Amino acid sequence: MSPVLRLVLIVGAVIALAIVIRSVRKCRMTVADSVYWVVCAVLLVIFAAFPGIAFFFARLLGFLSPSNFVFCLIIMLMLIKLFTLSGQVSRLQNKLESMSQEVALNEKSRQDSSRQ
């Protein structure tokens, strides 16, 4: 792994950590969600600091270079997060729809009882 790539990984991980910490402090992100991003950033720092680990897994999984492995890993982690967030959005959307229907029914019954 080239020194430039190692430097980019470390700088990118530090920037990601700073953004996550700032988002948690401003209450734009929960601590539970931030754990995922912190683990990803630490993983990138580990691969940059100890490139032998990336070489080992690249050879084990059949990648031509460790940089291909690292970028593939990043893409897979983002796709996993996207899938989990999509599931959360679907659940929240269903919950919102059910709650709005319940509120509409309650409002309708309140209007009917006030007319009598």
Account of the 3D structure:
This protein has 116 residues and is mainly alpha-helical. The protein has one domain. Helices cover 89% and strands 0% of the residues. It is built from four helices and no strands.
Give the overall silhouette: elongated
**What is the radius of gyration computed over CA atoms, rounded to a whole number of angstroms?**
23 Å
Instruction: List SSEs in N-to-C order.
Output: HHHH
Mean pLDDT score, rounded? 90
Helical percentage: over 70%
Strand content: under 5%
Tell me the span between the first and last alpha carbons.
Answer: 78 Å
Low-confidence stretches: none
Query: What's the total number of strands?
Result: 0
Helix segment tally: 4
Largest sheet, strands/sense/barrel: none
Which structural category fits the helices and strands? mainly alpha
Question: How many domain modules?
Answer: 1
Give the structure's gist in a few sentences.
89% of the residues lie in helices and 0% in strands. The chain is built from four helices and no strands. The termini are far apart.
